[in-house]
Design a protein that fits this description.
alpha+beta; 5 strands; about 40% strand
Length: about 110
């Protein structure tokens, strides 16, 4: 049953990535996430964290005075359940980005 859910999440992530396309100076992208823990294990070998999920929201703006540069913000929200407990860990990082536009579709 978990394998079917994992496959569904992978297919949704692949479709979301293929669908995104920038056609203006401002873009807003919302992507789901699947978190697989590679963290510590309990003394009996059971992983401390289980599979979790999250969402990523990213906005980017191509600068009008320098169309080869962009700037942006990204907000992530990740939920990672703790194995054998009714609690979970939540991460909410906020970051900025900037860079050079490599390929841009014609307007």
């Amino acid at each position: 049953m978990k394998a079917k859910h994992a496959l569904l999440v992978v297919l949704v992530l692949a479709a979301a990535g293929a669908w995104a396309q920038v056609t203006s100076d401002f873009s807003l992208v919302l992507n789901p996430a699947l978190n697989i823990s590679l963290g510590p294990k309990l003394p009996d070998g059971t992983p401390y964290y289980t599979i979790g999920g999250g969402v990523s929201l990213k906005g980017e703006y191509v600068l009008p005075f320098a169309p080869f540069l962009y700037t942006g913000l990204a907000l992530d929200a990740d939920l990672v359940p703790i194995n054998s407990a009714q609690k979970s860990v939540t991460y909410c990082p906020l970051g900025r980005s900037w860079g050079r536009v490599i390929l841009r579709s014609p307007a």
